[in-house]
Each structure stands twice: as structure tokens, then as C-alpha cells.
Amino acid sequence: MTVRGLCLALMIVQSAASPAHPRVTWSSSLGVSSLSAIEGLLSRPINGNYAAVLDDGTVRPMKTCHDLLPLVDAGFSHLSPDDSTVGWQLFQVDVVRCTALKILKQARPASTSYLGWFSLSAPAILKLPAGLAPAFTDRELKALARARQRCTSWRTYDRHLKVTVQGDDGALDAPDWAGHIDVLVRGDLNGDGVEDLLLERQAVLKEGGANPDSSDQLFIVTDDAKTKCSRIVWSLRDLGG
Amino acid sequence: MAEASRSGPIGLASAATESGWTSLAGPPWGSTHGPTGGPHPRGIPPRAHRSHHRLAPQPLNPELLYQDLKAQEGQVLFMYLDTANPPKVTVGIGNMLPNVAAAQALPFVNTETKAPATPAEIEHAFKSVAAMKGSQAAGKYRQTPSIEITEDTAQQLALTRVTHEFIPLLVRHFAGFDDYPLPARRALLDMIYNMGWSSKDAKHGLITFGALRRAAEAGDWKTAALHCHRKDTAPNSKRPSHATLRNEWTKRLFEQADQIAHFDR
Predict the structure, then answer these.
(1) B77 with B92: CB under 8 angstroms?
(2) Neighbour tally for A73: CB within 10 Å
(3) What are the chain A neighbours of B139 within 8 Å (beta carbons)?
(4) What is the pLDDT at residue A235?
(5) Residue B75: which pLDDT band, with cuts at 50, 70 and 90?
(6) Alpha carbon of residue A124 to chain centroid
(7) What's the CA gap between B116 and B103, in Å, rounded?
(8) DSSP string spanning B161-178?
(9) What does the mean pLDDT of chain B come to?
(10) String of b and e for B143-177 (b: at least 16 CB within 10 Å)?
(11) pLDDT-derived band of residue A212, with 50, 70 and 90 as boundaries?
(12) Which member of A90, A179, A241 has the closest CB to residue B135?
């Protein structure tokens, strides 16, 4: 077999379905000891003493994740007690945590996986969809939309991005921003039996002084036989950016 | 103050009478000399002589500056890691804390007990934050219980830096800075507080805004407004990104400076 043929064979093997992880796995950063403990965490009081101020002036306290998640889904534009950028950044931390817990609670073991190639390593992270990249300008936002349509990998989209994996942390370093990528949950997250990843991507602009703009987003990434590329099937809107 | 209020555009008429803060109100270093009394490092550019005011400039009001910095730069009352490499423990409006002792020198409060934080609590909070990974949003660093400084302390820390660090830099590098219209000085202070003057490799910071500096020294605020744009971020946010709003705010300040200069001429 020629080298070219060998490469082709390897690519076919890589893109084929592989045995799924037999169970749902999750990051220790979620603080979840067992799946049965999640309900308790969702019901636990949130430190922030937040309230959503609706357009009609109604104030809706958000004392637990159960209060917070439906209000975030419905959307509201004013946050009490601190409607500043920092206030929304703090709130986003709880939104991310609550959302990740809710997704983990609904997760099921996958019967099929096309993500056998993924492990927390620099090459695997760079193979993820370009849509995980933070967009710093409108131009970049448009470029990201095009990259999504073309199934472009993160490596192809951003050739300057450096990834360093230490333990369960994927540190990201680009010329003008730095951040992290964490695999929060691995399993079937949308009920189709195919393995998905719940990823948290954080990014903070390097130039920004005291409290530079930041982005903290969740993404569900999957891979399937049809598209033959990994893609984002859901993402959490960033309220704190 | 020496300069009485004067009528002018965009509602700035009374600002001249507000400040009792003499360290910022006048040009303690001389308007064309650096903080050490030496000459301007690049000499005075010829166009800088096209000076900006017939009237004495309005003084910088510390309360106004603090509100500017708080709104634009962001204020974090608990310790967090900045974006330096390696990251540094920081508090307030970007006040770096080099070690535990520096943190213990500040009047932190335990927000649960409302009592002054003990040295042990401050040390624990400092070390917990220092041990975390950098490049995260500030909110990720809040500890439980949260050990925080008050707004008054944050204000004092920020204004001390403005007085002793940033105004001297602006005076040194922007010929005639003290004579610039108040909105232009506010905008430049925001930019230098935000970005610093220069990174080690001179690739970042206000030093890279050459066109802005030339326009400012020429009193050409309309052009300055076109060259003050900092890198934008987070357009995927539901709300306009903070950087977008900040850029618009800075641009408006230079446009206000243009109106004031036009009025004075």
C-alpha cells in the first residue's frame, strides 16, 4: 500500500463510528459527586442575590438555578443588584454553571460515537469546529459564520492559536486574547444516541486593563456520519461579554 | 477655581467650578515639561503651538474621573487575576497586588460577616486566587466568603494611580496635555489607564496610537476622534459589547473637545 493509500485508509477509520464511551463523564470543576446529586445542586441557593428586572418593571428573584434558568431562556435586559458589565460577568458564571448542571442532568450514555478521535490534547482541540473561537470584531463574526458553513476546523480558522494542555485544562493563547477550553460533559446530550461534548470556552482580551472584555460560553459539539466533521449543535449566549 | 464657569457646548459649562482637587486641577509639572522637569522628550512638535484654548482649561474633577474609570474600565472589589503573563492578583480598578502583604495593607471586608477581614482571611483569599488559572472573567475569581474592598478604597487607589502614574505620562508624551479641552484629557486618561503607555515591545498601549497623538498635539480633535478606536470584542453578546460602547464614548469625548476648541476659536 502506498503512503497515500495508507493515509486514506486511516482517514476512513478515523471518521467511522466507534464504540461510544459506556457512560456519561463530567469534569470535576462542576463539583458533582454523582448524577443523583445534581438536583440538590440545582436547588442550592446562589450566592449572587440576583434578580431579573423585566421590561414591565417586575422584579423576579433568582435564588437558585431553578429560578435562574427559565428567566435566562426567556431573556431580560436589566440585572439587579448590579447591572454593570462586572455584574453581568459575575452573573454569567452562575448561568454557565447552572446550564452545565442542567445539561449533565439530562445526559445519557451514548450508543454511538463519531468522537472517538477526541481527547483533551492540543491536536484534538484544534480539530474542533472554528465556531468555538471568540469573535472580536464584526468582520471576525462574519468569518466565523463562513467557517461554520464550510466545516472549517479551529486550526484552519486561526493558525496563530496555541493550545497547551495541562491536566484537564486546555489553555488557549492567541495574539490578542487568551483563554481556556474545558470538557464539562461527555455523553449523549440531546437524546439522539450519538455522543456529544459539552465544552466551556473562556476568552479574555489581553489588552483591556483592569477588567477586559471576556467571553464565557458553552457549546455542544457533535460529530456524525453525514457531515463527516464536528459541528456545534447548540451554544449558550454570552450575557457577560 | 481660577477659571470660572463658561458657557459652552454639550453641557460642560459648570464643570470648571467643581474641582477642589488642586493636584489635578492645574499643571504641576508645567505643560511642556515632563514630570521630572526635563524638556519634552521629543521636543515640542511644531503644530503643537497651534494651541488649544484662549481660556484656561477646565480642571480634572476627581469624582468625574473616578466615575469615568469605574464605568469604562470596570471595578472589581474582590481579588482576581489580571491578563498579564504570568497573571497578577489585582483588585479595584486594576490595582496589582504583588504579594500577600500588599493585600493585607488594604482594608478588606468579609462580606458575609461585614467585619474587617483578618490578615489570615486576606492571605487565604490572595493565595486561593493566585493559585487559579489566569485568563478568566473576573467573576470566576470570587471566593466564598468574598473578601472585598469598599468603593471608597477602590476610588482612592485608582485616583492615586491617575495622579502619580498616568497624568505624568500623558504630560510627558502629549505636548500641551494640560491645555487640552477637558473631554480630550478624560478620553486620553481612559485610554492610558486602559492600555498603559507601552508594553515592553512597544507593540501595545497608547504609544501605538501615533495618529491620535499627532492629532492631539495639533489640537485637531476631529481627527483624534477618528483615531482612538481600540480593539473591539464580543459582538456575539446579546448586548452591545462593552468595548464597542467604550470606543463610542471615547470618540464622543474627542468630538466634544472639537466643539469646545471650535467655540474657543
Answers:
(1) yes
(2) 9
(3) 86, 89-93, 240
(4) 92
(5) confident
(6) 15
(7) 13
(8) HIIIIIHHHHHHHSTTGG
(9) 79
(10) beebbbbeeebbbbbbbebbbeebbbbbbbbbbbb
(11) low
(12) A179
